[in-house]
Amino acid sequence: MSGPYTLFQVLDAPRITEKSTMCQEQANQMVFRVATWANKPQIKAAVEKLFNVQVKTIQTLNVVGKIKRVGRNQGQRSQWKKAIVRLEQGQSIDFFAKS
Hints:
This protein is α+β, with helices and mostly antiparallel strands. 26% of the residues lie in helices and 35% in strands.
């Protein structure tokens, strides 16, 4: 995406699954669904600014949408991009904290 963008356009949502929770507890990693056009520096800047933490590394991967079939009709789920963000030692993000 060219031109200005907001931090909320880069990060779509955190992925809260069993696997992402284990990554958070064991390796201090957070998993986010991000915009397909976002690159690692943009993701790093968005996470650091929004959550006030220090990012150590980022891994990104494109998730291919599965082909699904209902009766004679066939369709495909949306493709999306996942970012696994490793935080510096002692840093954390709590999505369920009461404010």
